[in-house]
Amino acid sequence: MSGGDSLAFEISPNPAPVSDVERAALLADPGFGRLFTDHMVVIKYQKDKGWHEARVDPHGPISVSPAMAALHYAQEIFEGLKAYHCADGGVSLFRPDENARRFQRSAERMSMPRLPEELFLTSIEKLLDVDRAWVPTQDEASLYLRPFMFASEVFLGVRPAHECLYMVIASPVGPYFSGGVQPVTVWVSDNYTRAAPGGTGEAKCGGNYAASLAAQAEAIEAGCDQVVFLDAVERQWVDELGGMNVFYVYDDGSLVTPSLTGSILPGITRESVITLAREAGHEVIERPYSMREWRDDAASGRLREAFACGTAAVITPIGAVKSPAGQFTVADGGTGEVTGKLRAELLDIQHGRTEDRHGWVRRIA
Ligand code: PLP
Ligand code: COI
């Protein structure tokens, strides 16, 4: 049983919201993921009742049992999308239907209930109805939305939970990397892999990120910003970064990105970049891409640019690559022309500064 397509939301306004003056001060320099809006969405699921009790509550702590299944067996999934301030003063979402569908696929992989697409979209709109003033208006800033679902059943047996909670919280954000919009240095992990064939790599589940932290700590230790994960079998093919997909730009104008093997998160930004690049006349090839190619083609100069992409990272140039075997730069280590153009075009679409030719933008207000 799932139900829930037309649930009524009960709205409990925050009795002590952040004042306009304080919010303006916070929004001036939001950082990433450390500030939260005044409200959150909560929807309950029970196996025998389906989706029920949809609420918008004041953002705040929730009380859970120490025997709640998610705390023990990590049955948890999440999504990440942004609300953008538009040139005409409105607010928009970018391809939120794709996030809704990926959330359903992640739920299936983690033996959780499917949240109907309409309910996913409505939940986000309900939150934006009350927290719209939290959408930052300056360049490179947006309101990051974090829908998530976890096994809330109080039970220690290992089986799919019969009760789940779906929630949405929202966080005003600037650039994901603390250095701002600058080329990053990535660390190639040879100790750790992220996802193996048959595993959960293409699901957006919290456990994938927990498993990436030791490698990410290694990256930070080596003075890098992000980890590059290689495939778990041959340890030579580039999968993706800890929280982003990756693209390579060649001297003949073509782009290469690792094909979706089942171990890679199918990024919505990735898919959008493929479309935009093809429309701009670039050939885009999805195929296995080896670490050796990356090194050799950077050395020969055939590889002109590399970039990471994702909702949080938007499009971020990769300037240098480090591994225990040594280090190299991609071209001059700066932001390449194709990377810069794709980034500007994507942001222009998201912020309503250019025509939405693909029907990707969903206007909220
Ligand atoms: N890969 C991983 C592991 C991610 O966490 C993300 C971020 O969501 C992405 C790729 C990019 O996905 P998207 O473009 O849908 O945000
Ligand atoms: C995103 O881009 O939405 C991500 O999930 C990456 C990271 C913040 C986990």
Structural notes for this entry:
There is one protein chain. By secondary structure, the protein is of the alpha+beta class. It folds into 2 domains: about 10-175, D-amino Acid Aminotransferase, Chain A, domain 1 (2-Layer Sandwich); about 185-350, D-amino Acid Aminotransferase, Chain A, domain 2 (Alpha-Beta Barrel), CATH 3.20.10. The chain has 8 helices and 18 strands. The chain has helices spanning about 20-30, 70-75, 95-110, 115-130, 205-220, 270-280, 290-300, 335-350, and strands spanning about 10, 40-45, 50-60, 75-80, 80-85, 90-95, 140-150, 165-175, 185-190, 225-230, 240, 245-250, 255, 285, 305-310, 315-325, 325-330, 360-365. Strands 1, 2, 3, 4, 5, 6, 7, 8 and 18 form a 9-stranded mixed beta sheet that branches. The chain is globular. The chain starts with 8 loop residues before the first strand and ends with a strand. Bound molecules: pyridoxal-5'-phosphate (PLP) and 2-OXO-4-methylpentanoic acid (COI). Pyridoxal-5'-phosphate (PLP) binds near residues 243, 245 and 268. 2-OXO-4-methylpentanoic acid binds next to loops.
Main pleated-sheet profile: 9 strands, mixed
Mean pLDDT: 96
H-E string: EHEEHEEEHHEEEHEEEEHEHEEEHE
The proportion of strand residues reads 25-35%
> Count of DSSP E strands?
18
Low-confidence stretches: none
Q: What's the CATH class label of the largest domain?
A: Alpha Beta
CATH superfamily of the largest domain: D-amino Acid Aminotransferase, subunit A, domain 2
- CATH topology descriptor of the largest domain: D-amino Acid Aminotransferase, Chain A, domain 2
Task: For the record, give the distance between the C-alpha atoms at the N and C termini, rounded to a whole number.
Answer: 33 Å
* SS element count, helices: 8
Number of domains: 2
Rough outline: globular
Give a list of the ligands: pyridoxal-5'-phosphate, 2-OXO-4-methylpentanoic acid
Helix content: 25-40%
Q: Can you tell me the CATH architecture of the largest domain?
A: Alpha-Beta Barrel
Gyration radius, in Å: 21 Å
Structure classification: alpha+beta
